[in-house]
Every structure is written in C-alpha cells, then in structure tokens.
Write a structure and sequence with these properties.
With 362 residues, this protein is of the alpha/beta class. Helices cover 42% and strands 14% of the residues. Helix 2 packs across helix 11, helix 11 crosses helix 16 and helix 12 packs across helix 13.
Length: 362
C-alpha cells in the first residue's frame, strides 16, 4: 500500500472509531461484561477484531474480554466450566456435547465464518498441483473430530483419496503446535490458517496449493455459542453482542483488504501489514466471512454431512435443537451502520449472491 492510501485508510478507521465511540451507551448506563473465548488467533476471525477495534461492542455497552484458548476441545471445556460466557468455536462441538446428553446444551446463535479457513500447504514448490500427489506423503494433520481435520477428509474423499490409507497421517501434535512443527521440518503437507500460510510463503517454506474452504463448501464453521441457560438469563446482552457482530460483518463487506488489515492490526502486532492484507484478501476472495450471523438450514446439513463422512456423527440433529436464530433475525431486522439495504451472504466466489442463501474451527 502506498503512503497516501495507507494514510487515508488509517484516517477513515480513526474517524469511524470516533463516531462509534461517540455513540456509546448513555452515561450512567452500566457496561455489561462478556468473557469471550476464541479457539485461535487468526485472520479468519477478522470481523470479530473489527467489532473490537472499531468500538462496535463498546457502542452496545459491552465490555468484551477476549481470551485465546487453542483447540476446540479446550475452548468448549472453558465454556462448560463457566470460565467463558460465549465461545467462538466450530459448531460441531455443540453437537458433540448434545450427543453426550447435556442437561444444559450449548446453543449456536451467531455465525462468523461460512467456510473452512484452512489452506493446503505444500513444503515443496510445485509447478502445478494435483490431489494425487498427496498419496504416500507425510501429512501433518489436525485433531480427530475437529473441523479442520474433518473438512480435510471430506475434501480428500471428494478427490478419491482415503486419508487414513493413502496418507502417512500424523495426528499426535497439539493444535497450537502444528504450524511450528511443520516449520521445524515435520510433514510434507499441512493445513494452515491465515496469517500463518502467508508468513510461511514469505519465508520460503512452501506455498498454498489449495483451499479446503472452497473444497468443503459452505457450513457454520465458526460460530458464537453459549449455554442455553446463559442465553435465557442474558438475552439482552446476547442481542447486543449479535448486533455488534452483524455490524462488523457489514463493515468487512464494504471495506478493502488494506482497510481491514489496518483495523485488525492491534490483534496481530507481530505480523507485517502486507501479510495481513494478503491474508484478508484470500479469505474475502473465497467468501469465507459470513455477511450476516444467520445459520442456514443447508449449511447445518452440510456440516453434518462432513461429520458423517468422518464417522463423528451418531445421528442427525435438527437445526432447531441446537441453533437459536432469533438473535440473528432481530439484528438483521434492526440493520446496522445506518444502511437500509441489507447485504446478502457472500458466495464462494467472493461476490454477493443477492436473494440467495449462502454461507463458515479447529
């Protein structure tokens, strides 16, 4: 980005921040604190960081305390043990808890991403990529039953590859250490989120050869969820939270990768701005970011198809069993950013599919 363009982006972000902060809850109104646990720190969650950095949660009178808890199982444990009020995690985890007969089930109420956020990364530079090249190779995989691994297996089977027979699959490395293990020389292929994929490309450690998000299709990949009891007892706070998320999703849809990178920079202080920008661009181009928080029926079905393919779904779970769409419906109906024209969800080509339902953790 040239200096002039960067200055304009910073100025625009600063101005919006002032406008938002100027519209914060009235003086004397008590701020509501929400403990939010995210499963990873990744550009994949850019709308969340926009909601934080641009004051969208603050305008709703929310004090969101963010904690990164690597690994879907660990983030769910934090939610179940009341160490977090809301979790940003893969929707499949709520199904696992439900399958175990939870008395206070985990309910999904707002979708943040609508595709898988990992990219297939090859250590050796290739003139062209063919899925057949994976056969017999050492593949540094993810946790069994986690969305990255299940989405990978779903994509592989589409291309006639049995992940457990055709690959030398390595699954004994903790989620938080997968990238560093690959960087240290383990594996020929790996799945990486952004910005790690762009960082490794810049360092000459290999290159991205395919998008697992494009291959596995649209699904509620990363969703805000909470205990049913929390939603019942804190409905107003959850509604405010969902409204801020929707606001951020609209902001993402109408701003450039450069502007988004500037806005989320506080959450990636050790990452080069150019790397952040290329990471955001990758996700925007494939329609990864959901443009509203609604979880659609067909996305829920695709999620369960992916789980079934991986052998992780005991029996189908109806959408209304584990999804509360009322918060998203009210947020969309109320609108955000003073814009009466509500955007449609993005398709996987990155363009808005007006009038068409479309839809996206470790």
């Amino acid at each position: 980005m040239n200096i002039g363009a960067r200055f304009k982006a910073v100025a625009a972000a600063a101005l919006l921040g002032l406008l938002l902060l100027g519209g914060c809850a009235p003086k004397g109104e008590q701020t509501i604190e929400i403990r939010l646990g995210e499963v990873a720190r990744t550009v994949f969650y850019a709308p969340q960081y926009v909601a934080l950095s641009q004051g969208m949660f603050a305008q709703e009178g929310l004090n969101v305390q963010l904690a990164t808890i690597p690994g879907g199982d660990k983030t769910m444990t934090a939610l179940l043990s009341n160490q977090a009020d809301i979790a940003l995690i893969g929707a499949e985890t709520s199904i696992y808890v439900y399958q175990q007969g939870a008395e206070d089930p985990i309910i999904n109420f707002a979708q943040l991403t609508q595709t898988d956020g990992t990219f297939l990364f090859a250590r050796q530079t290739q003139a062209s990529f063919d899925w057949e090249k994976l056969k017999g190779q050492n593949f540094l995989g993810q946790r069994k039953g986690g969305m990255p691994q299940m989405s990978l297996e779903f994509a592989l089977r589409k291309h006639g590859i049995d992940p457990h027979k055709d690959l030398k699959l390595i699954q004994n490395i903790d989620f938080a250490n997968v990238a560093s293990a690959f960087g240290s020389g383990t594996g020929d292929y790996v799945q990486l989120f952004e910005p790690q994929a762009s960082i490794f490309e810049k360092e000459g450690r290999g290159r991205v050869v395919a998008s697992i998000g494009v291959e596995s299709g649209e699904l509620p990949y990363t969703v805000y969820m909470a205990k049913r009891s929390y939603l019942n007892e804190n409905g107003e706070a959850v509604q405010k939270f969902t409204k801020a998320v929707y606001w951020a999703q609209q902001w993402i849809a109408t701003h450039s990768p450069e502007q988004i990178a500037e806005a989320i920079m506080p959450y990636f202080k050790d990452t080069d701005l150019a790397v952040l920008t290329s990471s955001v661009k990758r996700y925007k181009e494939q329609g990864t970011y959901a443009l509203n928080p609604m979880i659609e029926e067909k996305e829920w079905k695709n999620l369960q198809d992916v789980m079934t393919s991986a052998g992780e779904l005991k029996s189908p779970v109806a959408l209304n069993q584990l999804v509360n769409r009322s918060f998203a419906e009210k947020a969309i109906a109320a609108g955000s950013l003073g814009n009466a024209d509500q955007p449609a969800k993005a398709g996987t080509n990155g363009a808005a599919d007006t009038g068409v339902d479309a839809g996206g953790s470790p």
